[in-house]
Protein: RecF/RecN/SMC N-terminal domain-containing protein
Amino acid sequence: ILNCEAAVSELFVEKEKNQSAKGGLHNRVEKLLEERKEIEQLVRRRRAEEDEIEQKINQLKIELSQLEVKSQDLVERVQEELQIDLVESYENYKDEEIDWDMVREEIVELRGKIERLGNVNVDAIESQENLEKRYSFLSSQVEDLNKSKASLQQLISRLNRKSREKFRETFEEIRVHFQQIFRKLFGGGKADIVLEDAEDILEAGIEIIARPLGKETMSISLLSGGEKALTAIALLFAVFKTKPSPFCFLDEIDAALDEANNERFNLLLREFQKDSQFII
Structure:
């Protein structure tokens, strides 16, 4: 009796340890899923920010082009109407003490000349200076936006690389489980899941290939209704085995199965009942 009680105690302790380990694994799975959701949300936000920055860059480029055209037009008009090179005149400009009486006399004289010449844009130099300042400001803004865009693109590349690594790791694990469960449900045969586009696995479709015992390898679309249902169950439980949960609800999952396949499905379900509870 004492030996039995000791054995029962050891089994109870082992049960507690297993339950604790199970809870830890469940928490880890939930944490990984939360991290994945956060990464996906961050990627969407970064992509939205990149699109917004791209729109700002395009708008600034348009404004910059308009200002360049306006600046060039202003220089040409002054050169044509007043024979004055604004760029050269501005470079030779010096801030010195001025005899305002002489300036007034010169202004009167120049006004007379202007009246004889006709309409002249007397604010051309000031406009040129303002345009140059505006051009310099917009150029610096474009440069800053380009740097921000490059930084966001690097971040998105890192997130995509990490997502691809996690996806490939999980995909390979599901693939192994799918092959094992398929053989159990069909009593043999082979099955596989492959990516349609290996270059970009995040955008690639997934092709399910199955070869029930005694048949040729074919796409799942060519299988019978019962074989399709059994293959879908194999894939579903492969995913569930990769990321298990304490409870699982199944709605008429065995409706399309015959008696023999139903028996194999029940055997598979009993294996999973060790770690999860099923409600059908």
The helical segments are 2-82, 86-91, 100-117, 124-186, 225-242, 259-272. The radius of gyration is 38 Å. The mean pLDDT is 81. The chain has six helices and five strands.
